[in-house]
Amino acid sequence: MRQELISGGVIATEEFAIGYGKVLEASVVFLIIGFTIFFIVKLMNSIKKKAEDPKNNTITTPKNIELLNRMTVLMERQVELWKREAIRILGKIARKIKIAETYFYSF
């Protein structure tokens, strides 16, 4: 409590009150705004995720996502070709080793 001296020598006390209503109102407004922003961001992320899916035809896919998808497909094809080539080369090496072993053991 604060005390103040009023003219005439009388001491008056000023009461201090906590505004529970204002605190409650500010909390409710904060929660409303927070949930609104949360749902807007969540909606925008879901729309963005749908737009980035190249197989989803309901929303047009941005050009950069289409190019990245094509690059991914081409790299997957290239990996398959490399695997086939590696298997072919390893097969040749295995046959040469087998020929060398038979030649070595023939002595």
TrEMBL record:
Organism encoding this protein: Cyclobacterium amurskyense
Keyword annotations from UniProtKB, A to Z: Membrane, Transmembrane, Transmembrane helix
SUPFAM superfamilies (alphabetical): Gated mechanosensitive channel
Iron among keywords: no
One Pfam family linked to the record: MscL
Name of the protein this chain belongs to: Mechanosensitive ion channel protein MscL
Membrane-spanning parts: 23-41
Top-rank taxon, per record: Bacteria
Record keyword Transmembrane present: yes
